[in-house]
Each structure stands twice: as structure tokens, then as C-alpha cells.
Amino acid sequence: MIDITSLLSDEHDANHIKIEVKGRDLLEFGKSLINQSYQEFKNHFPVPFYEEYLTRKEVTIILKISLSTLWYWKKRGILTPIRIGNKIRYRRSDIEKCLISSQKED
Description:
By secondary structure, this protein is mainly alpha-helical. The protein has 2 domains: 4-44; 53-105, Multidrug-efflux Transporter Regulator, Chain: A, Domain 2 (Orthogonal Bundle), CATH 1.10.1660.10. It contains 6 helices and 3 strands. A 3-stranded antiparallel β-sheet has the order 1-3-2. A hairpin with a 2-residue loop joins strand 2 (82-84) and strand 3 (87-91). The chain has helices spanning 4-7, 11-14, 23-44, 56-63, 67-76, 92-105, and strands spanning 53-54, 82-84, 87-91. It comes from Ancylomarina euxinus. InterPro entries: DNA-bd_dom_put_sf, HTH_17. One of its GO terms (molecular function) is DNA binding. Residues 53-97 form the Helix-turn-helix domain.
């Protein structure tokens, strides 16, 4: 079976070609066009990533640790907080990485 796209790529030939197509092949071609368009759309308009920032209290609840353990982890570089104005926050993605790495160690 010849790929319709490659067959019609030459503009001069495309004007003089008459094509007989089975319904199944036409549906397949339509699906491939949709998939190609979707991929191009995704590349031009990527989904924005929104990071969630957590307070120290929220982190201690999620990780089931004390505030002093969180402070110790900060000093050792296990979890690195960020400052937003005068507030200290932790990235949710960093917390999830910490949880995943602790599960791998178990």
C-alpha cells in the first residue's frame, strides 16, 4: 500500500492523480492526519507546568516528620527550601522526589 501523503507530495503529480480508496484506508489516513495535527499542536502549545509550594507544616505532615527533622534535612541539603518574599516554601515536586527515593531505599 502506498502512503497517500508521499503520493501527493509532488504538487504537479497531485493535480493529475485520481485515487480510489477503501473506506478503511480513508479512515486510517484521517486518523493519521488527526494524530499529526495533535502532535504539532502539542509542540507549539505545551501544557504549562504549575509548581505548588508548600509550607513547612504541610511538608512535615506529608513526610510524617518533625519540624526539627525538616530543619536538619535542610542543613544537610536533603530538602532545599526556597524563599518567596520573607516566606520559606518547599516545592511539591521536591517532596515527591524525596518520597520516591525513600521508597526505593526500603
